[in-house]
Amino acid sequence: MQRIVVLAGGIGGARFLRGLKSAVPDAEITVIGNTGDDIHLFGLKVCPDLDTVMYTLGGGIHEEQGWGRSDETFAVKEELAAYGVGPEWFGLGDRDFATHIVRTQMTGAGYPLSAVTEALCDRWQPGVRLLPMTDDRVETHVLVDDPDGGGRKAVHFQEYWVRLRASVPAHAIIPVGAEEAKPAPGVLEALAAADVVLFPPSNPVVSVGTILAVPGVREAVAASKAPVVGLSPIVGDAPVRGMADKVLAAVGVESTAAAVARHYGSDLIDGWLVDTVDAGAVPEVEAAGIRCRAVPLMMTDVEATARMAAEALALAEEVRA
Amino acid sequence: MQRIVVLAGGIGGARFLRGLKSAVPDAEITVIGNTGDDIHLFGLKVCPDLDTVMYTLGGGIHEEQGWGRSDETFAVKEELAAYGVGPEWFGLGDRDFATHIVRTQMTGAGYPLSAVTEALCDRWQPGVRLLPMTDDRVETHVLVDDPDGGGRKAVHFQEYWVRLRASVPAHAIIPVGAEEAKPAPGVLEALAAADVVLFPPSNPVVSVGTILAVPGVREAVAASKAPVVGLSPIVGDAPVRGMADKVLAAVGVESTAAAVARHYGSDLIDGWLVDTVDAGAVPEVEAAGIRCRAVPLMMTDVEATARMAAEALALAEEVRA
């Protein structure tokens, strides 16, 4: 059985995983999930990326939105607003709240996040082994021009992304706590045992980049004997989804498929898929020592996504050979 | 302005307070609320009696049920059950959950329950000053025959009351933590400044009795120069609501209006109202040194309840004179 390890962010990572499962239903897939955008809201621990993967693969996701639960209601949020308790810009629905209540109760009782995630997945049966990148608290902060004027300030990634819609210039991305974090149990073991490692078209800075910032993870990926293949989140010089261009700029990386490949670098990735519209970038990526192919990279449905996953696995075999 | 202090439990206390406010809209009413039936559920701090008072006087109560919120939905509860997280026997609705989330967040941030209650009341504007009896943790436990067989065990009051429906014999009522508890800020001051102290027809053991179990409270009521008048929760040898007879039996008190008056005793109460059907008990109560009148005591609507409150205040004036 093929052992595949995927470093995943939220929506993009989750949708890619659905395609991957469809492409290789018998593979043993381990997902190392980003927890840098975790946030404490209303005293509850919210893990947006882990939940998006869990809900998407478990059949509970709000399909159109890409995050949160289907058939959602908002009574709790309404009531919190009536109490004057914010923030109001983070849209937690009633069903979603239950997940955070269970998680918070378990972490409060002393369970590490990895154990909590496993318990939550007992219900959702995502068909992959979902591991948080770390059990330690890491919070991605973004250094921005203060929207209220006068200088710069660091805000939580969710505040930058959800409240400010990435509309203010970002000058730095800081994964607070990452330096002291340890990979969660199973993370390094999964990387060591992997037949293939994949970077889905997730945000290379605040999703995959944050996972790689946990000491030991980047090293384990780089040291892996398995082929490491990534899929470009940038298609035609713009992010397919989200605002990856803004955070790429903050770390001094151009928003092109080739620049992201060079940002990861040939010490980390062996192969890179760009979209057919970026076929012209293939020579540049290969010149950087990374095997590159141009294939359709739009995750329009599960079938198209499965084809992308199959292309990534084919490129991995090509690299291995 | 007349200063009235009321020692209140849940449904009965809350409905009595609504009648009292209607009878004397200009009075300054301080409510000392029972927190002995508080319970931690799903990691959240739930204060059923405080909330019942707050929701009832603030217009948010589920009228027919007597507790919980009106227009309630149960998405969170459904989801918790889907996660296999219990207990399922405690019916928390989505709107109600928001209250417990706010409370838990505030207590987690270090605010005492009295400050949290004040903050919650900012929204509900109950028209009374609602004080928890204590900021310390007190939990009423009930010693019962183990429903699973073999001996006795202590269960949380809510488990006895809500899950077991008081259907197993109760041998003792233990307000765990009460001995070490201190009255919340304002409790003793309110009693010292009171013009009248009222015991509504709340449960004399697990509601009023628990409040009196906080060291200093019974003494302050007994020492008060203000008339102390109670209303019998027992009408015609049966509790008007709930299962007060079961917990009265556990403390060796007969379920009669006169026995409850004697249980409080003339060192605590100066006046006692019994229902007209219990008019025969008046001489027995008066023989115990407690002024007693028989008046209708069924809280069928706000008007009837207001008349009860007015009778209690009239009896207080009679005692004072």
From TrEMBL, chains A, B:
Family matches, as Gene3D superfamilies: CofD-like domain (1.10.8.240), CofD-like domains (3.40.50.10680)
Superkingdom of source: Bacteria
Pathway: Cofactor biosynthesis; coenzyme F420 biosynthesis
The enzyme's E.C. designation: 2.7.8.28
Alphabetic keyword roster: Magnesium, Transferase
Binding site for 7,8-didemethyl-8-hydroxy-5-deazariboflavin: 51
UniProt feature coiled coil, ranges: none
Record's catalysed reaction(s): enolpyruvoyl-2-diphospho-5'-guanosine + 7,8-didemethyl-8-hydroxy-5-deazariboflavin = dehydro coenzyme F420-0 + GMP + H(+)
Cofactor(s) this protein cannot do without: Mg(2+)
A GO molecular function held by the record: LPPG:FO 2-phospho-L-lactate transferase activity
Keyword Aminoacyl-tRNA synthetase: no
NCBIfam families according to UniProt: F420_cofD
Oligomeric and partner information: Homodimer.
PANTHER family registered for this protein in UniProt: 2-PHOSPHO-L-LACTATE TRANSFERASE
HAMAP family hit by this protein: CofD
Family as reported in the entry's similarity comment: Belongs to the CofD family.
Function: Catalyzes the transfer of the phosphoenolpyruvate moiety from enoylpyruvoyl-2-diphospho-5'-guanosine (EPPG) to 7,8-didemethyl-8-hydroxy-5-deazariboflavin (FO) with the formation of dehydro coenzyme F420-0 and GMP.
Protein name as it appears in the record: Phosphoenolpyruvate transferase
Name of the gene this protein is made from: fbiA
